[in-house]
Amino acid sequence: MNATGSHAPLNGIEQGGWRLVYNQNPNALVDAEEKQGKYLNAFYSLGFIVRESGGELEDVMPGSPAYDAGIGPGMRLVAVNGRRWSKHVLRDALRASLEKEQRFDLLVENAEFFKTYSITYSGGEKYPHLLRAEGPDLLSNILSPLLK
Hints:
Layout: H1 11-15, E1 18-23, H2 28-37, E2 39-42, E3 48-51, E4 57-60, H3 65-69, E5 76-80, E6 83-84, H4 87-96, E7 102-110, E8 113-121, E9 127-132, H5 138-143
């Protein structure tokens, strides 16, 4: 059967004794990539990855809040809620959205044009993690030759 869905097919992972969860802590891969690549990964919350220097939006996930607002790759993030863009400013705004829905006004430059895009979002920073679930740990057995 050929089909698409809004979420990844997780049956194999779940039947392998694991489950996918999201929390506020970057996983090891995201943390290492952010440090090495010097960008902020807001892919799993607002839906984009942004370079620390210059604010270039490297990627925007289709169907994400940023994408739905009209933001696309190659644009440049200038300000968040009236404050000059920085990793700390965006993270502070995301943390404020953990408890209640917040409005994000993102001033974005596209070529020589500036526009403010408004996004309503709640949930804070989100990063994927695999957590051990009940049942046999088939996934670790499958991956063990790669981890040696």
